[in-house]
Amino acid sequence: MSTYSALYKAPFGPGGASEVDVQLAEKLLAVALGRGADYADLFFEYRAAGGFVYDEGILKSASRGVSMGLGVRAQQGDATGYAYTERLDWDAMKRAAETAASIASGVGRPSRSTLPSGGSRAVTSSTR
Amino acid sequence: VTLDVPGMDKRKLLERAAAAAHAYDKRVLKVECSFAEEIREILVVTSEGRLARDVQPLMRFGIRVIVEQDGKRQEGSSGGGGRTTIGYFDGKSPEWHATQAAQQAITMLDAEDAPAGQMEVVLAPGDSGILLHEAVGHGLEADFNRKGTSNYSGQVGNLVASELCTVVDDATLLMSRGSINVDDEGYEPHSSTLIDNGRLVGYMHAG
């Protein structure tokens, strides 16, 4: 049996609904580096997981879930900026890259009022 | 991967394990089985030009058996899995795990309490690796050592363990739970000797 899944495939993978290619990734990295970061990376992750617990003839629990998103990291000296989004449209991904860049540069991030609903979020602050 | 296998087929594997545990000995009181599975896909792109994609399947089967004799209860457990498919059970069947767990629990019925105090111990292979992971592994993570907060900081080349002891961090073992084709920063994993005959060789880091 294959170690690939026929049922669960990452939307950012080849042929996926939101396929990410090198050109798109380079555009996002350029945004993440845009405020002077020395290094940036994009981390796309898709995870489908499930489980069963069987107790004395009874199926006690069954679970199944899917999570997916993009994390963008920007490093400037010892400062790291990180932001993520659970959407793979250009605006949300660009927003995450901008937020990571802002945090790493330490010059403040865009005001909260401009954040689109359900969009990117910053979760790591500068360590500088 | 196991996620593509119909749920009823997986339920049957758990039922087979439970039946085998109960059949092992009349003193088996309660059996609990579990099955956990996932598939993870990653794409890492870095400004240094690394680009990596990977598909990482993972599954684990576990069984816990409780036995009772003269009002005294003991338990045993067995489990396994890794980055593999339902084919895992061709090598170690649900019945095999059930027998291991039941045998362990039954043996424990006659066990005496271990004496308390400080003493030399011999660690069997397997779960004792967790002790090494916690007591040595975390202390060898490169970021702690970069900040100088580990008890291994500045100790490279020094004797940090018995000369009988060699510790290797190997992420390339086929289908093992901690094995990967690429790490979350896009680096290829490798096998690194961390402690060589008691001497600290280096720390754990990517690249």
How do the helices and strands line up, and which of them pair or pack?
The complex is a heterodimer of chains A (128) and B (207).
Chain A: H1 22-32, E1 39-55, E2 58-76, E3 79-85, H2 90-105, E4 121-124
Antiparallel strand pairs in A: 1-2, 2-3, 3-4
Helix pairs in contact in A: 1-2
Chain B: H1 7-24, E1 28-46, E2 51-69, E3 72-82, H2 88-91, H3 94-109, H4 129-137, H5 142-146, E4 167-170, E5 191-196, E6 199-200
Antiparallel strand pairs in B: 1-2, 2-3, 4-5, 5-6
Helix pairs in contact in B: 1-3
How would you describe this protein?
The complex is a heterodimer of chains A (about 130) and B (about 210). Chain A has helices spanning about 20-30, 90-105; strands at about 40-55, 60-75, 80-85, 120-125. Chain A is α+β, with helices and mostly antiparallel strands. A four-stranded antiparallel sheet of chain A has the order 1-2-3-4. In chain A, helix 1 runs parallel beside helix 2. The radius of gyration of chain A is 18 Å and the shape is elongated. In chain B, strands 1-2-3 form a three-stranded antiparallel sheet. Chain B has a three-stranded antiparallel sheet with strand order 4-5-6, with no helix packed on it. Chain B contains five helices and six strands, in the order H-E-E-E-H-H-H-H-E-E-E. In chain B, helix 1 packs parallel to helix 3 (about 95-110). With about 210 residues, chain B is an alpha+beta fold. Helices cover about 25% and strands about 30% of the residues of chain B. Chain B is flat, with a radius of gyration of 21 Å. Chain B has helices at about 5-25, 90, 95-110, 130-135, 140-145, and strands spanning about 30-45, 50-70, 70-80, 165-170, 190-195, 200. The two termini of chain B are about 30 Å apart. In chain B, a hairpin with a 4-residue loop joins strand 1 (about 30-45) and strand 2 (about 50-70). Chains A and B meet through helix 1 and strand 1 of A and helix 1, strand 1 and strand 2 of B.
Which terms would index this structure?
heterodimer, A: 128 residues, 21% helix, B: 207 residues, alpha+beta, 3-stranded antiparallel sheet, 5 helices, flat
